[in-house]
């Protein structure tokens, strides 16, 4: 691989890895850099929406991912106060539009591993771990990055473009002074994983959103490390307690007692606490630096939107880089990328994730009832049901993005 005749990518999470694979599959040399020594084996995003599965089919990845995940054809909205299921939405209404009318629930690190195993078969793909991008310098015909190893040593790499997939604290974005407007939620979010079977105990679907004016929650089933089946519970930590307290067994068991009073204690196989932001970068392209995924937009995790929209960014961008690389398009195609993805990040990713959270946490009884009535009315109308699921699975977002020129 020529030193400067390649695409540089910072961040080897799902967006960076899938983008790198998509470029390498086109024969485009790509160098991928990540600060971590290996793929983090923790509970982060865990949903591939039908729209994403359809897009990944063109890369050959969907067929490999399907056996590793759990197919979820339904998702429920439930009310903790009454104990009733308010509405049950069926991905099956998409059967005439997509090949995969379900969400695939698969841990993020498994998706990254599957794609990496495929990407490393290409001679034009290179991954360097424990390499932090610390500086970015744009040239007239290239972009140069400085990466630092754990021992403090540094080296320089040059490529035609840099794609920043390096998360909400993106060095790629900050190096270009690109603003990241938005806000930080007051509460922290904690994900707790347990082997307890909520489908058997409470007739839960594999995807559930549980409304409550004080302590709402979300619940979904994922495969687990040994494909034994693990249930992930998402709780908001609306408290001033320190992180150590919120991560402790006493605090967690109190939340289970509130939300899932099936037994007095649950075995905990994983816990993860984090702060949540709702932000969209003011631009997704500045010269030869391009942003995708969390480097470009971050949102709360309710609805399984963030990672999927990031993957859509990466696949969109890989197609456009391929066209430029083959001299089929000019550099201005990246302005189209910015318009397509930034517009829909604001219209769909932010608006929908914020709306999802508002419905779950609504405290006004009249407003709560209004939300519930709206959900029931959607279920009762086949066209509205279809429209809702198309939007929730990001099919509508993809269509709108593709319509922007």
Describe this structure in words.
- There is one protein chain.
- With 405 residues, the chain is of the alpha+beta class.
- The protein has a single domain (7-181, 278-403), classed as FAD/NAD(P)-binding domain (3-Layer(bba) Sandwich), CATH 3.50.50.
- The protein is 36% helix and 27% strand.
- The protein contains 13 helices and 20 strands.
- It has helices spanning 14-25, 50-57, 62-65, 108-119, 171-175, 198-202, 243-246, 249-259, 306-325, 333-361, 365-380, 382-392, 395-403, and strands spanning 7-10, 30-34, 47-48, 70-72, 74-79, 85-90, 103-105, 125-129, 132-138, 143-148, 154-159, 161-164, 182-194, 207-211, 217-222, 230-237, 268-280, 285-286, 289-291, 297-298.
- Strands 6-5-14-15-16-13-17-20 form an 8-stranded mixed beta sheet, with helices on both faces. The protein has a 6-stranded mixed beta sheet with strand order 8-2-1-12-19-18.
- α1 runs parallel beside α4 and α1 runs parallel beside α9 (306-325).
